[in-house]
Design brief:
By secondary structure, the chain is mainly alpha-helical. The chain has two domains: 58 residues; 211 residues, MetI-like (MetI-like fold, Orthogonal Bundle), CATH 1.10.3720.10. The chain is 83% helix and 0% strand. The chain has 13 helices and no strands. α3 packs antiparallel against α10. The longest helix has 57 residues. It is globular and about 70 Å long. The termini are far apart.
Length: 282
């Protein structure tokens, strides 16, 4: 009987000890969760409040009431559609060129020249260090006249500006892969280099390529200095030099560009997560 009571006491003490440990862990988890919630709330307020204030100013009539009239005036604004089309052309051309250059280069460096990655990190950081005004003045000084008169010169300059972001996105994606094993397996099955890159490596770099594409898109649609000095009217230049008497249209176009970039990023991240979940289920 005494041994039974002693066992119950020990079991009760053990249960109380485990319960206290669980309570301490639960309280610590709640504190961490609460801290994350506060940080996320402050970050969201930092971005949402100015955006809401700008949209409220843009979508208000002269009496201070909500109105969708500025939305209908955007398409009719002089030269807006041409500026939007030019920015879209430059964004597509920049993404195609920078991906075509950086993807094979990064794969070759990771496979054959891993020590050269440090040199590439220094090289790719230079477009961030060099001021854009210095870059475009130097480019205009050595560019042939036939290329200087074309808008594709902007795309080539934007390739240089996008290189730091694309490099880091691809470097992170390739660093997460067993690159040598994938390449050797594909080559042993008879695939050429082009087929290996397109069918084996690119699908595994989907997240990195999407991130690099979004960063390039945001860069092209937000760059002002180089386009302005080179004499081309992209969307940021149009916002600055908009031939309209209503400042609400300028603000609304800027906010729509920001919202569009956020929506594109959200859609890409959602699609990537859904594909990852489907691949894990299969």
């Amino acid at each position: 009987m005494a041994s039974l009571e002693l066992g119950q006491v020990l079991e009760h003490d053990h249960f109380m000890e485990e319960y206290s440990r669980g309570s301490e862990g639960l309280s610590w988890w709640r504190r961490v969760h609460w801290g994350r919630g506060v940080a996320l709330f402050l970050a969201a307020a930092y971005f949402i409040i100015p955006f809401y204030a700008a949209m409220q100013f843009s979508l208000a009539n002269k009496y201070g009431q909500f109105s969708l009239q500025p939305l209908t005036q955007i398409a009719d604004a002089p030269q807006f559609l041409s500026a939007l089309w030019l920015s879209t052309e430059l964004a597509v051309a920049t993404m195609v060129i920078v991906m075509g250059l950086m993807v094979p280069t990064m794969i070759y460096v990771h496979l054959r020249m891993p020590r050269f990655r440090r040199v590439m990190e220094v090289i790719t950081i230079l477009p961030i260090v060099i001021p854009p005004i210095v870059l475009i003045v130097g480019v205009d000084g050595v560019t042939p006249s036939w290329l200087k008169a074309s808008q594709w010169l902007l795309a080539l300059v934007y390739v240089v500006l996008a290189m730091p972001y694309v490099y880091r996105a691809l470097d992170a994606g390739l660093g997460a892969l067993d690159l040598k094993t994938l390449v050797e397996a594909s080559r042993s099955l008879g695939s050429g280099w082009a087929n290996t890159i397109w069918r084996v490596l690119v699908p595994n770099l989907r997240s990195a390529l999407m991130s690099a594409s979004v960063l390039t898109l945001a860069l092209v649609f937000g760059e002002f200095t180089i386009a302005s000095l080179d004499g081309w009217q992209t969307v940021p230049v149009w916002i600055y030099l908009a031939p309209t008497d209503d400042p609400r249209i300028n603000t609304l176009v800027a906010m729509m560009a920001l919202l569009g970039t956020c929506l594109v990023l959200t859609v890409i991240v959602s699609l990537d997560r859904s594909k990852n979940r489907n691949s894990r289920r299969s």
